[in-house]
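Quarterly update, task 2.4: KG4-bound model.
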Amino acid sequence: MTTVLGIETSCDETAAAVVDDGHRVRSNVVASQIEFHAKYGGVVPEIASRKHIEVLNGVIEEAMSTAGCCRDAIDAIAVTHAPGLVGSLLIGVTAAKTLSWLWNKPLLAVDHVRAHTTSPAIGLDVPPWPAVALVVSGGHTTLFVVRGFLDIDRLGATTDDAAGEAFDKAATVLGLPYPGGPSIEECARDGDPAAVAFPRTLLGRESLDFSFSGIKTAVLYHVNGPGKTSGGLERMSPQDIADTAASFQQAVVDVLVTKIMRATARVCTDTVVLGGGVAANALLRKTLRHECQRRDLRLHAADMAYCGDNAAMIAAHGYHMLEAGQTADLTLDACATTEPRP
Ligand code: KG4
Ligand code: ZN
């Protein structure tokens, strides 16, 4: 058995986890900072990195004790080193390098977005590859073809806002609390998804890229009037707001599902996997399940515990890097963007 300690601090969640053999999770501790960022309507990078410093040691200790694990039982330490907020990444990378040196264990440098593609495989005895993977979060909306845990190629990505970012911005326009995804989802329950005809931007018949800036502006003008950016919300009834939220959510889900189906037609696979914070959205999960059933495709959506940022997926992905001999050394640095791959 190979046991990996994972550490994740790329954005506003401080997380640590202990995972056996890349898919059996012994502990998964996530300390969310949402309450500290909510009043600003988004993540404040300086606050995020300071909060990571305050809680990371305690989060790692809790992950170790919940797993019933001492340092001798850990075979390697995996950490998110890219992409993300560089000040936040640096806290996790520094902690992981320190433990690697102190405990004399291999260090694994994990790409956060690629780890999101591993999250739907957690708990599965048989890996789901090859598959089309959609990682849909606050920072990313990316389609991949995954042939193996480390054999991943990008098929398409957002050209502007990420889908989660669009949820967060639309929520702000509608006066709903941060983070916007869960609050739009809740508000949309009382709304009519066909009430407002928001655009479904598909970027041409062949494209596997995404664009969500148009729908964000469409929500802004729907609320305030054409060309206006404020003053309209007070005139909307709670039903108007719910209808707008439901119509927005439907439009985003339609685009995501359409692009996944395009990707499965392009790539020879009968399997779809879904990860990232927006993967927690019930309408997205339901619509995708339905479309996959219609086309005889298998769907593995990440468990709710592994949709948002977590360290179990970092440890799981790190395990496969360890198996492949892809270890890092103490010169490892944090990197705000994913290095482009050939
Ligand atoms: O993966 P994640 O925790 O962090 C990033 O890597 O970005 O994703 C956070 C994003 C936020 O934009 C949040 O609004 C969105 O995921 N989100 C949702 C839901 N829960 C979280 N979006 C739609 N529906 C949800 N239920
Ligand atoms: Zn993420």
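Highlight for this quarter: Residues 112, 116, 137, 276, 309 surround zinc ion (ligand 2) (CB under 6 Å).
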